[in-house]
Each structure stands twice: as structure tokens, then as C-alpha cells.
Amino acid sequence: MDEEPERAKRWEGGYERTWEVLKEDESGSLKATVDDILFQAKRKRYMFEGHGQVRLGMMRHLFVIIDSSRSMEDQDLKPNRLTSTLKLMEFFVEEYFDQNPISQIGIITTKNKRAEKLTDLAGNPKKHIAALKKAVDGTCVGEPSLYNSLNVAMQTLKHMPAHTSKEILVIFSSLTTCDPANIYELIKTLNALKIRVSVIGLSAEVRVCTILTRETGGSYNVILDESHFKELLMLHVKPPPASSSSECSLIRMGFPQHVIASISDQDAKPSFSMSHLDSTSEPGLTLGGYFCPQCRAKYTELPVECKVCGLTLVSAPHLARSFHHLFPLEAFQETPLEEYEGERFCEACQGELKDKSIFTCQACKKVFCVECDLFIHDTLHCCPGCMQTDRTS
Amino acid sequence: FRLNIEGLLVYFPYDYIYPEQYSYMLELKRTLDAKGHGVLEMPSGTGKTISLLSLIVAYQKAYPLEVTKLVYCSRTVPEIEKVVEELRKLMDYYAKQTGVKNDFLALALSSRKNLCIHPEILHANIVVYSYHYLLDPKIADLVSKELAKKSVVVFDEAHNIDNVCIDSMSVNITRRTLDRCQTNVETLQNTISRIKETDAAKLREEYRRLVEGLKEANVARETDIYLSNPVLPDEILQEAVPGSIRTAEHFVGFIKRFLEYLKARLRIHHVVQESAPQFLKDIYEKVCIDRKPLRFCAKRLRSLLRTLEIADIADFSAITLISHFATLVSTYSKGNLFVTNFGFFLYSCMDPSIAIKPVFGRFQSVIITSGTLSPLDIYPRILDFRPVTMASFTMTLARTCLCPLIVGRGNDQVAMTSKFETREDFAVIRNYGNLLLEMSAIVPDGIVAFFTSYIYMENIVASWYEQGILENIQRNKLIFIETQDAAETSMALEKYQEACENGRGAILLSVARGKVSEGIDFVHHFGRAVIMFGVPYVYTQSRILKARLEYLRDQFQIRENDFLTFDAMRHAAQCVGRAIRGKTDYGLMIFADKRYARADKRGKLPRWIQEHLTDGSLNLTIDETVQLSKHFLRQMAQPFRREDQLGLSLLTLEQLQSEDMLQKIAQIAQQA
After folding, report:
1. From CA B500, how far away is CA A186, in angstroms rounded?
2. For A177, which of B503, B634, B638 is closest by C-beta distance?
3. Which of A31, A179, A223 is the closest to B502 by Cβ?
4. Across the interface, do B445 and A30 touch by the CB < 8 Å criterion?
5. Is A201 on the interface with B (CB under 8 A)?
6. Assembly ipTM
7. B54-76 residue pLDDT tens
8. What are the distances in angstroms from CA A306 to CA A99, A293, A317?
């Protein structure tokens, strides 16, 4: 199939039933049921998370493996799977560092039965995003190799300290994998090293991925469409629960304050930032910045690992943002609409309550609709009703 | 848990029950109450076996005088093992619930190698064995003749029961058989003369027994202890072995003469078909062999072998076969005989009802059940019995886990069909290739593709190779092919499963009516899609088939076309049914022939497939199929847990007892 010239024009593309997504199923069978199941799963997810004190692996080392095989040229995501995936990945990287300031990420691509490291494990989003932007122009050829790419990731991850959470996320578009050896052996090794492997499938459920994720304790999902893809990807932004056997340890961390020096200040001298040492493209001399409390090396942005003394530098707001992972908002109680005797409008969006069930905050007893319930738990992480009562009281 | 089915307390060894299982048991109970026969169709993977076992066992316990024994017949050894496994579970559950030590005796007879005839079979409450023990006259006589009348007989996976009956009444004789028979006769002769010198009394004793012994059999039969042997009708057994073959030497001489006659018949150069009476007339004219001694051939031989104390009966298989042939041909006038120039001698019985008649006649309830028995009404017709219940059950599903699609056209709008006139058409072959290629790119893990015959498969695969289609397919998946060689096929199957397991993905090309299509399940990832290339009609030019069709038309008023379509569709349903083996499983069923869209074909599919076949899935092009399949596979890949099934397709006891659930259950069974 790949001898075919690039299928750029829409009318040259494959036959698609785009109306299928909007179609209402009169028999109420397939789509409605699956959606219902999905919705239940979504709720269950945060219900589970809200379950008391769960230890989370806050310090994560994550390798993302991106399939760049022939099947990534498929146009069922617009404009094609590769472009769409890379775009979402950029967003993912940003979100990831936003929520996990003391974590690192690395990217691996696989095509033509080989695996290639796009970026090494590092804590700086800019470098990854630049690499992802460059990868859009790459070609997609041959078959992927799950074995080789997992192996590459494993070689780095196995040296990571035991208190960190070691994870691999595979974005797998192809339905086949060309492996040089028995992958089940590798799965055993990954399991022994406590590396969690999760997979997001772009086409269908592949057996080996099911086994891989089940054995290593990861999750396996297959996308339905682009928005579902994004949703699934965002699930991996949140830190996973730490395995009970992982070690605890204290980590030294620096909280440098941003020093703003004005030109009028006589003592201020322009200096180079340490992070610009190896990149020649950006302008070097600046006045202000973050100074490492241990060795006084200067950086222009956080979070970063100090190049001189190896101290992890973060800002206090970063840590605060990770806070809600540890103390998630309690799940709201679900009750059928008929049983509710109050004014039928949602506390958050002020819309009328029309769905078959409503959600009540256990603390402030305010009532919310399904959409707001999800929004509050997924994005806000605090109950607007409680906030209001706090202020008024 | 404990169920109450119309007043009968049934112990069910699982915590959950499928609604259709409940419905199935209900029908079964009614059949037993009426003491009649039943035809029940329920999809595989919905727990047919355990429903059957738990209901019948409960029935036995509740009415020990009405039903004394359960005879469970299945087809293959793995299936028998599965039944035994379920039975063990049920018995454990009984023991746990009632606290009483199990007083049930169950017996499983697996392969012929382990054939064991112990008097205990008489007292066993449950007997599990292969079809042949009941249907094959050669074995039935040994194993099953002492089963009591008040037994319930179950034929599981019975969609091919008519063929099994015909096979059991047919004999195949090649030139090699005759040659081996010749040596057998010589050995016999030598043994006889040796024994005559050393122990002549033994032979005399046998002679005496043959004269006297039959009287005893007569008495036994009158007292209704035996299941009548389908080969030897009662009236024959009541006669004594004719004098001309009573002594050992005479009998051997007789066999020799018969053998010479058969050999002479093989020396022809064209195919001859004749009926049994014609054959008998000819043999009488040429070598003066009468009909009567021929009838006793099998019995006489068995007696002789026993007298001579021959340990290894397997050595004498050739002569045993010939003697069976002699008995069959002289007993049933409905048979047909074929002689060909390849030294191929075939006696074929056209009527499956002969072999099964004693079973229906003798036992109070006979249940015929399978995943694919549609259309239900044809089985009673060809097997010549009157069922009291005929029902087809659907599968209740929390999600639509099967997706039947009928592909009728290629992207170039050329009709896809394996019709004889167009099957060699280049465009058709290419479209079939494209279909497989496109599917190989979107279906994960395993695909099984069925062709209508080995020759057709070879032609198509060769043509695909020339067009480079095979090479393209191999980028997506490995290709394995079923051949007529059993060892090769099992090797291919093993490698196929390995490739499905480790993520490389594989395609198995096989043939409808072959070994793969009948006995092997492709659960979960071993079969995510089944593609049926063409309609698997039986080879219509075969003389045996022609004779059979003629017989069906004359005797049962079944039109040729109806039977052929029925036969083709039951095989197609069997093939596609390989992919779905339970409720958590899912799979695509692709019928690649535009003829499937016609009402006469579609209507003959089992109901549980038909109900998912909407107007939107008929006569699709390849592109449309790909889109629908992609959508389906993504939907099915979403997480699916047991809780999602609960209350819909999986019930607890409380849910089962609710009023509207019982109403829903009533709709599951459809009476034919």
C-alpha cells in the first residue's frame, strides 16, 4: 500500500461514514450502550481515586513510545494519525510538567522494526516540544517493534532509583509488531523491574498489549475518536498510585526565588543562564533569574535540575499544584432526579437539571449536573459550593 | 444457586446465570415432561452443557422412576472432556449444598482406544460418550444395547447428525482392503486347520452354540432389555444362522467366494452405480451366493474370531469390514452401490433415519442440540421423527459483540461471488484479495478465512501470489494454510496461534467442511474476524450426493435446491460461529458473496446471527466493510467488565425472579 502516492486530497481518501458519529441509534443498542459504559467508567475512575489516602508516585520517569510505522499515515484522525498524535503529545508534555514538576519525560519512536530515541529523559518541556515539532516532517515506514522500543526504554529506566515511579506509555497505531525475540520474556523483566507499561491503541485491541499492560499493572485503552484520544492521553498526566513496595526517601529540593534586577541597580551584572550554555540560538545575557540556593548557578525557568550541583529546583506554586493529587476532592453522591426535592438547577452552571441523576456534594450539600460534576473533579479539583460557603461564613 | 423451574428444584453451580440458560432449561423441562423429543438451538458459549446437565440431573433426582439415565453424546474427545469437567463441578456443588455424599455414578467413554465394557455401565446414572457408541451399528451393539428405555439421550453439536448417521451406515472398500482381506482369510484358514488338529472340540462347541444360542437372544429381546441393533432388524435375529456357513471351513470358503466376486467386479473401467437388490441379484447369478448367508456374515465372523481366540482383532479389520459390507448390503434395500475404476467400492446408505431410528424409537426423550441448527424444521424431516419442542434461543448481550456483514461488491462495483461461472474471473479473485488485504490491515491478531474447497483455495492463492497481493498481506500478517494433511494442518494451527499471541498477527486460510471449520474454536484474539469466501455448497457432481438428493426428493419431498442451500448455510454458520465463543468474546463475521444477501440464504442462518444482520449490512463494498469494521473494533476494544453485563445478560437469582425479567426471558425462545 505504501507505493501509493501520498493521499493528500480529501476526495482521494478512503470511504468514510463521518455521519456515523452523529447518528442516533433508534434501536438504542450499540452506540448508546457503549457510551453509557464509558460514562460509568469515567465516574468510577475518580470515585476510585477519591478513595482515602492513596500513595502516589510523584516523582515520575516516563518514556513515551510513539509508533511511527506505516499505519500512522492512516487518515482517520485529521490530517493523519502522526500529525494528530504529535500535536496532542505537545499538549501532553506541557500538561505533564505542569502537574508533575519534579518528573522527567523521554520520547522514543519506532519504525522499520527499529527503535530510536528522540529525546532522552529530561525535565525541560521546551526541548521535547521542539523535538516533537521536528518529528512531524518524518516519514512513516515499515512495521513497529514493540520489543525493541520497550528494550530501549528499559535500558534507561532500570538505572533509576527505586523511589521514583518508572513508567512507559506506548502510543500504538499498528496492529502488528516485528520482534527479534520473545516479547513475553521482556514482559517478565519489565515486571521484575517494576516498570509500568500503559498502551493507548489507535486502531483496535491487540492481544500482546493486553497482556503487557495487565502484567505490568498499566492501563490499556483504545481510542474512539480524536477527543477520546485526548481524554485518554490526559489520564496519564495524573501520577499513578505508587506500588506499596516502592521505597520512600527524602529528596533535597531547592526553591529559588525569582530575582528581578533593574538596570538602575548598580550591583546588577548581566550573566548567562546555565540552561543556555549548550544552545546557541537564544540570547544569553540577562539580568534577573532564578539562582540555585546551593551553588548560585542561574536559570531562567523552572523546574530544572541544577547542572552544577544536581539539586532539583522547583517553585513553590509547582508543588502546590501537585497537592490536589494527594488530597482529591471527595466524590459527589449520585441520586436519581425523581428523588430530589429541591430547586432543579445546577449550582455551578445554573442550568436546569434534566439528566436522570444529580450529584450532591457531601460537604456543602449543593447540587450539580453531570457535566459540572465531571468538570469539578477533572479540572477544578475543588467544589465551588464549598468555596462560597467558606467565604460567606 | 437453586432455581425453581416450573416446580422443579434445580441446583446450578454458578453464581450467575444467563437469561437464555433459564429459558433453555424451561424448554428442556417441558420436553422431558412430555416424554418426547426436542430440537433446541442455542449459540455456543452461552452455557448449553451446564444447563442440560443441571436440569436433567435435577429431573433424575426428582423423578427417579421417570428418568433413570442420561446418555450424553458429543462429537470429539475434547468436547467430552469439557462435559465431564462441567459435570464434576455440578456434582461438587450438589455435595456441598445437600451435604449428602454423592450417590450418582457418571461414566465417560472417551476414545476408542480406551473402550471399556464394564458391567457397571448398567448402573451408571450418567453416561457421556461419542456419537458412534449409539449410532454406529458396529459399536452400538457392544456398548449401548443394554441402556434402559427410560433414558434421556442428548446429542450435542448435532448439526451434522445426518452425516454421522450416513457415515456409520456406509462402507468404503478399496483394492487394498481386498488384498488385506485375502491374507486375513488365509490366516484364518491356517488357524482353523491347526485348531482342528489340537482342539476339535472347540469348533464343535461353537457349532452347537450357533444352533442353540440364538434362542436365548430371542428371549432377551422379548423382555425388552436390548436396544435393537440397527444393522440386524429383529426378524433376522430370530432366525438361526443358516446351515451353509455354520461350520468354520464352510464359512471361510464362503467368504473366499464373496471376495473373489468383489475382486472381479473391480476389474471394470467405468463407474457403475447400482442398487442393493441389483447387486444381490448379480451375485446370485454369478457365484450363487444367497441373500440369507450374507446377512449373517458379520455375526458369524465375530463368533469365529472369538472361538479362535484371536487376540489382536485390529489385524482382521479388513475382513471385518467386508463382512459388515455383506451384512449391510443384504439387509437394507435402500442403499446404493458404487464401483469405480480406481478400485473403489462404496456402499452408501441414503437414509440417515435408518441409523437413528432405533434411538428415537427406544428412548423416551431424545434431545438434539447445537449452536447452529437453523432451519429447525428440516432435521425432523430428514431424520424422520416428531419432536414435541423445537426452539431457537438468541444470545442476550450487554453489547453487540458480533458483527455480521455481507460483502457483495468490490470497490470497482464488480459483484463478488464464488458462483461457478464467475469464480475464475480475474476481477472476482482480485476483489477477494483486496478484501483480505484491507481486513488484514485493520483487524488485530487473528483472522480466519474459509474457502469453499481445497481446489478453489489453491487456485485463488496462486492467483494472489502472481498479482502480488500475498506479499502485501504478509506485511500485515503472517499467512498459514490448512492442507489435507492432518499433521501439516496441526503444525500450521500451532504456529498461527503463536503469531496471534505475540502480536505479529496471522491469517489462517482454511476450507469449509475441513477439520478447522468443525472442531477448532478461535476464542478471543485467535479469531477477531472470520471471512467466508463464497457459499460452501457441497460438490454437486458427486454421485453419492446425487443419489442422496434423489432419495430426499422421492422420500421426503425435500427439493434438491432446498437441501443444498440448507447444507451450505449450516456449514457457513459453523465457520463464522468459530469466532464467537462466549459473551466476552467479540468478532466480525464477513460473508463475502453477494448471494448471502438473498432472503433464502439469509433466512437459513441461525437466529442469533440473523438478528444482528441489519439492512445496512447487506451488499456492502469493501470500503464500506472496512469502515464498519473499524468502528466496530474500536467500540469493542473499550473496557468491558462483568458488572456491565449484570442485569442485562448475566443475572443473579434475585434479578432472575423479577417480573419483567421473566417476561423478557419468555421472548428469548422462539418456537419453530
Report:
1. 17
2. B503
3. A179
4. no
5. yes
6. 0.81
7. 888 888 888 887 877 888 888 87
8. 20, 10, 19
